[in-house]
Design a protein that fits this description.
The complex is a heterodimer of chains A (425) and B (362).
Chain A (H helix, E strand, L loop, with lengths): L1 H36 L8 E5 L4 E6 L10 E6 L9 E5 L3 E5 L4 E6 L4 E5 L3 H10 L5 E5 L6 H17 L2 E2 L4 E2 L2 H31 L3 H13 L4 H24 L14 H26 L2 H9 L4 H12 L1 H17 L34 H10 L4 H41 L1
Antiparallel strand pairs in A: 1-2, 1-5, 2-3, 3-4, 6-7, 6-8, 9-10
Chain B lengths: L4 H8 L1 H43 L8 H39 L2 H16 L2 H41 L9 H22 L13 H26 L2 H9 L4 H30 L2 H6 L17 H8 L8 H41 L1
Helix pairs in contact in B: 2-12, 3-7, 3-9, 4-7, 5-6, 5-7, 7-9, 8-9, 9-12, 11-12
Classes of the chains: A alpha+beta (425), B mainly alpha (362).
């Protein structure tokens, strides 16, 4: 009886710790979803009546909850410059809090927010005087909005976030260049890694000799190398070695200003290709190994060469595995930030890596990246109360992209399994 | 075949067949050469990593002695962060793997595994953001509550299992039933802590090794989980079935058959998790404060080798002393992670061989 009791206790411990993992995961994704979307939701504007007679109108910013249990931070009208009107108010000093319906909130193009009440004439005049109509980005009466109107504001802010370039040293505006940079980088990386990955997988699938064993060991060990080491290699070998060499050969007239000898899209893509190579090789080789040998032997018996069997039979049959490898590689590359910090990601790039000017894709340009924007907005921005929510918005976007890619890979893999189970029977 | 007699004849003439066979053979050779060349380039790229680091050092000139002092601090920081991460990842990851492999209802398993795979894909910069922006201010005042939770939760689970465990027939969905209990425990401890005017333990800095460890642990859980689950699944079903036939409970089958058989695999999983924690950059960069402090205090800041590389490398000019110092640091990090993961690989290989032999003997 005692043995059963101890067994049950152990089982509950193990089950409880698993439950803890599940709960932590739910918390993580819940936090990302809520904190990632919260910046777009029109928050209420509050009026604080203080005991000393002053009255403050503005948004309560919860972002710096840094141990403040007895005070709150409020952003009042930023008349001078962005980030210059935060005030700390002790809870004991507040006489009354209200959310007046007639509050108007203006967001200017330079990022400043102004609050005023329609009824109080002085404020109204101030608003009209301070603001030229062209400089206004958004004008809202946030406390009077109904649910549908709030959703409308939410959608338009989200669209603005996705489709415009950033402003004010990356604190406001959208993330279009970062999104484009991430996508271009990942696309270029896929174009480089797929041929090499597939060729290596085919080689490993066909050969069993010493060379193949060496390649296999190298690939396996490569998977465990820290990503920052890839960044070091990318910087030393690609940027300084290859890029510097190209500059000396072809762009000698422009030296010492580097053309390819500085960080850039191409070198970042090469670095990420090296980083994701093991993922592609392993998944493609697994896909090739899953194809029943009878299929290949049948095609060889009908007179096909190895190469014809490969093109017409094996690769088409392994197509889902190729796709899985690609998707996993893309997901891994989209999340790798550390190596990029060494090979050309920047806080604000002067130009997009893709544009309408020949040759359309500019592989030597520095670029922006969603992951780096998260790091930069969270830690290196001048206005942390704006920076952290912005970092969370970028994080939500990035995680959303990565999750969609991974779910696709998982679904594909399951379909693939079913298909081969059908082939084998 | 269209009706044209000339085409018909040419397709079947001996010359055409010979020519097309020659073309086919040539194509085959070209493809084989392409595959070989691509693989050679890949191998070259892979070998370039250690070779570049070794040759870039240029051992002819010596590094200044303070570089070595700095290395000790960085190495200590890396190991401290890695150890904190493993302390979180290993218990949770292995417990989840044990549950999923041995107790779990199939319906729950089809959800847990993909969910953890997705957790593995979450970029570490996002975990770093959560640690630095949300967790750090909270942890600054709640170190004592976290310590209390680490003690209370396992004890509470054990006690509850002792008291009610024998009445539960089907433990397949137990984690979900235990969620309210866990939430209640956490809420209770946090509420009790909020009533204290000052927190009992104040960390030296809000960004410290414990915080890094929590975030690294979350990043490491999926790796430890999937590797240990693989190891547990490698043990043949016949072994556990035999244990059940001899009257063992599920728990006894786990502790007397599964764990001894898969033990080296579990150790390997822990080691690989450790290796991943050692090389992780973004979390350490964002949540550690990046202050080069030695020692073993989990509540003070640190600076790891990877953070040093990420911060110092873009500024260092090639062939300077700083550059070579950083290359040496990168080599050190590479060797450290490779040694740990090679050890883990050897353990896994041993497990696979032994279980293979056992399956054939059975």
């Amino acid at each position: 009886m005692n043995a059963r009791r101890y067994g049950a206790a152990g089982t509950w411990l193990v089950a409880g710790l698993s439950g803890f993992c599940i709960a932590a995961m739910l918390c993580l994704f819940g936090l990302l979803a809520s904190a990632g979307l919260a910046p777009f939701w029109p928050a209420a504007v509050e009026q604080l009546q203080l005991r000393d007679g002053r009255s403050l109108l503005g948004e309560i910013v919860a972002a710096d909850s840094a141990g403040m249990t007895d005070a709150l931070a409020i952003r009042t009208s930023e008349r001078e410059h962005m980030g210059g009107a935060y005030q700390r108010v002790r809870l004991d000093d507040i006489a009354a809090r209200s959310q007046p319906v007639d509050v108007i909130m203006l967001t200017l193009v330079d990022g400043r927010r102004l609050y005023g009440r329609r009824s109080a004439e002085g404020e109204e005049v101030l608003l009209a005087a301070a603001v030229a109509p062209a400089a206004v980005l958004e004008i809202l009466q946030p406390n009077a909005l109904g649910l549908a109107a709030r959703c409308g504001v939410f959608a338009s802010r989200l669209a603005h976030f996705l489709a415009t370039p950033p402003a004010a040293s990356n604190l406001i505006g959208g993330v279009l260049p970062a999104l484009l940079g991430t996508l271009t980088l990942v696309l270029l990386m896929s174009l480089i890694v797929m041929p090499f990955g597939i060729a290596t997988a085919i080689y490993l699938h066909r050969r069993r000799g010493l060379a193949a064993r060496c390649v296999r060991i190298a690939i396996n060990q490569l998977a465990g190398v820290p990503s920052i080491v890839y960044g070091v290699i990318g910087l030393g070998l690609f940027v300084h070695g290859l890029g510097g060499g190209i500059d000396r050969l072809f762009y000698a007239d422009r030296l010492p200003v580097p053309t390819f000898g500085g960080g850039g899209l191409l070198w970042a893509a090469l670095t990420l290709a090296l980083l994701t190579l093991p993922v592609v090789v392993v998944s493609v080789e697994e896909g090739l190994a899953r194809i029943p040998t009878s299929l290949r032997e049948g095609s060889l018996a009908l007179g096909a060469t190895h190469d014809e069997a490969l093109w017409t039979l094996l690769l088409p049959a392994a197509r889902p595995a190729l796709l899985t490898g690609l998707i996993l590689a893309v997901a891994r590359a989209a999340g790798a930030v550390a190596p990029l910090m060494l090979v050309g990601v920047v806080k604000l790039a002067p130009a997009l890596p893709v544009d309408g000017v020949f040759p359309y894709l500019h592989p030597s340009r520095e670029f922006m990246h969603l992951g780096f924007t998260i790091y930069d907005a969270a830690l290196a921005s001048a206005d942390a109360i704006r920076g952290v929510p912005r970092a969370y918005a970028c994080a939500g976007l990035l995680v959303g992209v990565v999750i969609v890619l991974n779910l696709t890979a998982i679904l594909l893999r399951n379909r693939l399994r079913d298909r081969y189970r059908a082939l084998e029977t | 075949m269209s009706g044209n007699p000339a085409t018909y004849a040419s397709v079947f003439s001996a010359d055409f067949v010979r020519a097309s066979a020659r073309a086919r053979r040539r194509r085959e050779r070209v493809v084989a050469a392409f595959v070989g060349v691509c693989t050679a380039i890949v191998l070259l790229g892979l070998l370039a990593i250690p070779l570049f680091l070794l040759f870039g050092l240029n051992p002819a000139t010596r590094l200044p002695p303070e570089t070595w002092v700095r290395f000790q601090v960085l190495l200590a920081g890396t190991l401290r962060a890695g150890a904190c991460g493993v302390l979180v990842a290993v218990p949770l990851g292995i417990a989840t793997a044990m549950f999923t492999a041995h107790f779990c209802a199939p319906g729950l398993r089809t959800w847990i595994k993909p969910a953890l795979e997705i957790l593995e894909a979450v970029p570490t910069v996002v975990l770093g953001l959560i640690a630095a922006a949300t967790l750090a201010p909270w942890l600054k005042t709640h170190v004592a509550s976290v310590l209390a939770l680490i003690v209370i939760i396992p004890l509470m689970l054990l006690a509850a299992g002792m008291a009610f465990g024998t009445r539960v027939r089907n433990e397949g969905w137990l984690p979900l039933w235990l969620l309210p209990l866990l939430i209640a425990a956490v809420a209770l401890v946090v509420a009790l802590a909020a009533r204290q005017p000052t927190s009992a333990i104040v960390p030296a800095s809000p960004w410290n090794a414990a915080l890094v460890g929590l975030a690294l642990g979350v990043a490491g859980i999926p790796i430890v989980f999937s590797l240990s689950e693989d190891a547990l699944f490698l043990v043949p079903r016949a072994h556990t079935d035999a244990a059940f036939a001899l009257g063992a409970t599920r728990w006894q089958a786990l502790t007397t058959v599964l764990l001894p058989a898969a033990g080296s695999g579990l150790v390997a999983a822990g080691l690989l998790g450790f290796s991943r924690c050692l090389g992780e950059t973004m979390i350490v960069l964002m949540a550690s404060g990046n202050t080069p402090i030695g020692g073993f205090d989990p509540l003070s800041g640190l600076r790891s080798i990877s953070a040093e590389l990420a911060l110092g490398m873009p500024e260092a000019s090639p062939a300077s002393d700083a550059w070579r110092g950083l290359l040496l640091a990168a080599l050190l990090l590479l060797l450290l992670t490779l040694c740990v993961s090679a050890l883990a690989d050897a353990l896994r290989e041993r497990l696979r061989r032994r279980l293979h032999a056992a399956a054939h003997a059975a």
